[in-house]
Amino acid sequence: MKGLFGGLALGTYATVQLDFKRADRKPLKAATVKGKGTETEQLPLYTNKDSVVGEIRVANTPGKKVEHQGIKVQLLGQIELKTDRGNPHDLLALVRDLAPPGDLTSLQTFSFEFNDVEMQYDSYKGLQVRLRYLLRVTVSRSYGTSVVKEFPFWIRNTEDVPPPPPGPQPPIKMEVGIEECLHIEFEYDKNKYHMKDTVVGKIYFLLVRIKLKHMEIEIRKRETIGSGSHARNENETLAKYEIMDGAPVRGESIPIRLFLSPYDLAPTYKNVHNKFSVKYYLNLVLVDEEDRRYFKQQEIVLYRASDVSKSTPVSPQTSTAALDHQPDMQNSD
């Protein structure tokens, strides 16, 4: 794939390049991955059960002979935690030997193939965890340190959009309130959305005895590493959308239509390799005239659809709870 080559210096004597390909010889797709700040990079894109194939070229500097103890390529899947830097957890490790010990006196080309690789987890780059896949080329040497070069690639898996259940489906309702002061019903169409979907719903004001000045809805991501007493959460607000400006009255309803496609979302992940989870929430926030904030959040499930031409509902759920009051939204979770 053009632009997906990498160079490796063996002292001043040799270089290594790698070219990703597809087993069916079709053009290889690329994923645009965010880097530091506004930087992005293009990585080869594969999916679960794909064959990862390619070509490696090792060339010596003209007139220089390179002695080595063998050349190999590994396909690795790793989870790296912020709390355990430098100690990645391998979830996948495959190896192919390319050359036995010998001397490198001219350009050598090696083809490699990893067939039908089990890569069930998506690549992921979060605030405190990274799941990555890579090819690692190692040229072993009898003296000094073996020279290693890594070539990352990206995994993106999809799900089929579920078929609609038979018959009309009632909406999902979340009732929130403060006793004798505020009673709101938040109605939305489903709790599972694909990442190009639209959240459609309504807010009903059944009782209003608090002077509210505006209301907003947020998409929040919660990233969790570890479990039990050792769990560590990192929360991030991905989107904020004002749905009301002004004081509501009893009986008023406000429609909601929140498009998910503009936002940088990943699927919901549940206990990936017993290392981390990623969850998403719709967070409803109300602010009164004294700038006190009242909030309630409801978990939603996100997935990457293989066919986003249709959006279908899932089984309805109902949640009823008291509305929390929190002056400082930074501590609202």
Q: Describe it for me?
A:
- The protein starts with 13 loop residues before the first strand and ends in an 8-residue tail after the last strand.
- The protein is mostly beta strands and 333 residues long.
- β6 and β7 form a beta hairpin.
- The chain contains no helices and 24 strands.
- The N terminus and C terminus are likely disordered.
- Strands 2, 3, 6, 7, 10, 11 and 12 form a seven-stranded mixed sheet that branches.
- 23% of the residues are buried.
Short description, anyone?
With 333 residues, the chain is mainly beta. The chain has strands spanning 14-22, 30-34, 40-46, 52-60, 66-68, 71-81, 89-99, 102-104, 108-114, 124-125, 129-139, 147-155, 172-178, 182-188, 192-194, 198-208, 212-225, 232-245, 253-259, 269-272, 276-288, 293-303, 318-320, 324-325.
Features:
333 residues; mainly beta; seven-stranded mixed β-sheet; 55% strand; disordered N terminus; disordered C terminus
The rounded distance between the terminal residues' Cα atoms is: 45 Å
Order of helices and strands: EEEEEEEEEEEEEEEEEEEEEEEE
Number of helices: 0
Total number of β-strand segments?
Answer: 24
Largest sheet: 7 strands, mixed
Q: What share of the residues does DSSP label as strand, in percent?
A: over 45%
Using only C-alpha atoms, the radius of gyration works out to 26 Å
